[in-house]
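Sequence in, structure out.
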Amino acid sequence: MSKKIRIEAEEIFKKVIKKEYLNYIRVHEYARNLAKTKIQTPNERKEFMYSLMDDKKLNLSLKAGKLADAKKRIKALFDLWIQN
């Protein structure tokens, strides 16, 4: 259900929001599902998700529309996160 809402919302957001943010919405589901596999509490997952927003390499990939690179970066950041 959330995927359907996201797709419909994207159509509206395309007219109002920067391309970078639309791309973030697209990879958000990937990041969230990844986080759910190893990060136990909702608060820790929230911290992880917010940390993604501050990563310059991830933001550059999103701005350039390189979603595959963005997903690789998310995976690398996730691996670092769970090691700590």
